[in-house]
Amino acid sequence: MSGPTTRFAPAPTGYLHLGHVANAIFVWGLAGAAMGRVILRIEDHDRGRCRPEFESALLDDLDRLGFRPDLPTTDALRAGASPFRQSDSGAAYEEALEQLRVTGVVYACDCTRASFAAWEERTGRPWSGPGCPGDCRRRGPAETPDMALRVELGDGSESFVDRIVGPRTGEPSDRGDLLVRSRGGWTYGFAVVVDDLRHGVDLVVRGEDLLDETPRQIRLARLLGRSEPPAYAHHPLVRRSDGSKLSKADGDTSVRELLATGATPEDLIGRAAAEVGLEPSGRPRSAADVAGMFRAG
Predict the structure, then answer these.
(1) Its pTM surpasses 0.85
(2) Cα–Cα distances in Å, from 170 out to 164, 191, 213?
(3) Which CATH superfamily is domain 1-103+191-297 in?
(4) In the predicted model, is pLDDT for residue 296 greater than 70?
């Protein structure tokens, strides 16, 4: 029996940092320990922030660190269009959207962030529950190419057992219905579910900051026909001294900056592993070593 399929899915909005190295350790480590495979996906749905030069840099950094995906190779992504790059996958998202339209759960929404802020100011609490502040599902504003689209997820809750965090339950619509298209572009919450389904991902390994996204993604996947959700493993983040998570703007933790100042790939992997509690000593470790951190015994 084959092992799980998971994915490493950076967004090329900046350079890889130690937080990405920690994620790679968990992704390749859990996959390797279970004899699974790793898909490399470029999540560049945000065309306003993503840059080709950042994609090139992250592919180079992965090569230097020694993390090798099973599919596609970094050279295949460098060569041109790929179904593992979100900006090349518009047809797949349109197809998924049409599938949802048939079931009647897609609706146009003219609410903005200001609409949600006005609701909170008026009521004294953030918007919570299905729908949106403007009641767009009922009003039915005319859809235009640039108008936002939402998917009605319904009420109730979704439960799952995270492989790291343990049992969790959450409401898919706790912050309103899922936004699937905004300002003419696809949203993370929509694209990632479509991608995991079409790429056969059955183990999602990501940072704990995305834990609350899981119930809505499980519900959306079910609406798209996925009978069994993937397994989830939400790992600790590498954080600054003040407790905030790292940003791609943090040059002092950038992989390429640290390598340029004399650190080795093994130094960075050991440091990142120590930051998330996997390697207390922080001793240098290679990409080939990471599966051993997750094997029993």
Answers:
(1) yes
(2) 17, 21, 9
(3) HUPs (3.40.50.620)
(4) no
**Spatial separation of the C-alpha atoms in residues 195 and 201, rounded to whole Å:** 8
| Rounded distance between C-alpha atoms, residue 168 and residue 91, angstroms | 34
Per-residue pLDDT for 252 more than 80? no
List the chain domain ranges.
Answer: 1-103+191-297
Beta partners for residue 121, in sequence order: none
| Averaged pLDDT of the chain | 93
For 195-225, how does the pLDDT look when each residue is reduced to its tens digit (9 = 90+)? 999 999 999 999 999 999 999 999 999 999 9
What b/e readout covers 53-90, taking b as 16+ CB neighbours within 10 angstroms? ebbebbbebbeebbbebeebebeebeeeebebbbbebe
In 3D, which of 296, 297, 287 has the Cα closest to residue 26?
Answer: 287
CA atoms of 260 and 118, how far apart (whole Å): 48
- Nearest CA-CA partner of 290 in 65, 33, 36, 7: 33
